[in-house]
Specification:
Blueprint: H1 2-33, H2 55-63, E1 66-72, E2 77-84, E3 90-93, H3 95-98, E4 103-107, E5 113-115, E6 117-121, E7 128-131, E8 154-159, E9 167-182, E10 185-193, E11 205-208, E12 214-221, E13 228-232, H4 233-245, H5 265-284, H6 288-293, H7 297-302, H8 305-312, E14 317-329, E15 332-342, E16 351-362, E17 365-373
Antiparallel strand pairs: 1-2, 1-4, 2-3, 3-7, 4-5, 6-7, 8-9, 8-11, 9-10, 10-13, 11-12, 12-13, 14-15, 15-16, 16-17
Length: 374
């Protein structure tokens, strides 16, 4: 009886196996003889943002980690630049930018401003590290600490010359191993570049055009010329790393509040103008997350991120042409901006529209509180 049951089970298994093979064979023939039509695309891939080595992409991504540094001393104020280099909130800059500082305020590319404290300060080498605890775990800019560039290599110098935040100079390495002294600082084996370094540029990053990595700190320039000098990252990375790892936040002295000049109406209007420009640039490069973070909580409560993204997903191009009017009204900035855009992939012709942006402070940070077409 048991033997008969085993034979029966084997026969059934064989029949099922043959049936399965026949079904697979039939389905394969069906696929070969028929076209499959997809009714809708779930994922809409935009290849315009795929080229990560595109110059515009490199600049835009780098700017998120580059800061403007506003310093108040006993007798004066100064502006410099710096860049976030680790996840502790530490920023590399020049020693001469923060030397003698009573207060240090750091402004991010989205105009968010925070007080900073000195982590390390070079005595004869023009390097320094400052820390902003609010930037802990924020993505730093990548560094190139081993390779040294040669003359002719294409570079990007980013900083805030004369206070114009996130200005970009394109050039080449025009010389290497330059050495000289300025004031009490010794510059040894530095890069010479074909980009002018002026007031406000100091401390900003020198970026390799090929990789988007920082290769140097822009530190000095010859006035009224296209000659600048940048300290190689490879020469200072050990010092700044040691400073960062050897001090805790409890040991640092932070100013109690953001300094007064940030509330000046003229500076506020400059920040508002920059913020609108940065919002448009973020949309143009399809960085919808960054654009959304520039909005105030009121706008974000009205529109969640998926809805905001879907509104601009088909945007082909957008450019800020000019400002028709800029004014301060009841502690808020109102900017009438003329924008050129194209939503259609089939139409080459650009459309124009005038938008009213309202900019104000929210939790001590400058945000877009409202914007709509006029």
């Amino acid at each position: 009886m048991e033997k008969r049951q085993k034979i029966k089970t084997m026969i059934i298994s064989s029949i099922l196996a043959v049936a399965g093979l026949f079904a697979n064979y039939s389905f394969y023939n069906y696929l070969q003889q028929n076209d499959i039509t997809i009714e809708s695309n779930i994922i809409n891939y935009d290849d315009r943002s795929a080229a990560t080595n595109d110059l515009q992409h490199i600049i835009h991504e780098s700017q998120k980690s580059i800061v403007q540094i506003n310093v108040d001393t006993k007798d004066s104020s100064r502006v410099g630049s710096g860049f976030l280099y680790n996840t502790r909130g530490d920023i590399i800059t020049n020693a001469h930018v923060i030397d003698g500082a009573k207060t240090i305020n750091v402004t991010m590319s989205n105009t968010e401003t925070y007080p900073a404290a000195i982590v390390g300060l070079g005595e004869d080498q023009d390097i320094a590290v400052i820390r902003v605890p609010q930037l802990i775990n924020q993505k730093p800019i990548p560094l190139e600490t081993s390779e040294k560039l040669l003359p002719g290599a294409e570079i990007i110098a980013v900083g805030s010359p004369l206070g114009f935040q996130n200005s970009v100079n394109i050039g080449i390495i025009s010389g290497i191993d330059r050495s000289f002294d300025i004031d009490d600082y010794h510059y040894t084996d530095v890069y010479q570049i074909s980009a002018n370094i002026t007031h406000g540029n100091s401390g900003g990053p020198l970026i390799d055009r090929r990789t988007g990595k920082v290769v140097g700190i822009n530190s000095a320039g010859i006035e009224d010329s296209d000659i600048g000098f940048s300290i190689p990252i490879s020469a200072i990375i050990d010092d700044v790393t040691e400073w960062s790892s050897s001090i805790s936040n409890k040991e640092l002295t932070f100013p109690s509040a953001i300094s007064g000049p940030k509330r000046d109406q003229e500076i506020f209007l400059e920040d508002a103008t920059y913020l609108v420009q940065y919002f448009i640039e973020s949309l143009a490069i399809h960085d919808y997350i960054n654009a959304y973070t520039l909005l105030g909580s009121g706008l974000q409560n009205q529109t969640d991120y998926p809805s905001f993204r879907s509104e601009y997903l088909q945007l082909r191009d957008i450019t800020l042409i000019n400002y028709q009017d800029k004014q301060i009204v009841e502690d808020k900035a109102q900017l009438h901006a003329e924008i050129e855009y194209n939503h259609s992939t089939d139409n080459e012709e650009m459309e124009k529209a005038s938008y009213l942006f309202t900019i104000g402070y929210e939790n001590d940070q400058v945000k877009i509180l409202d914007y709509h077409p006029e």
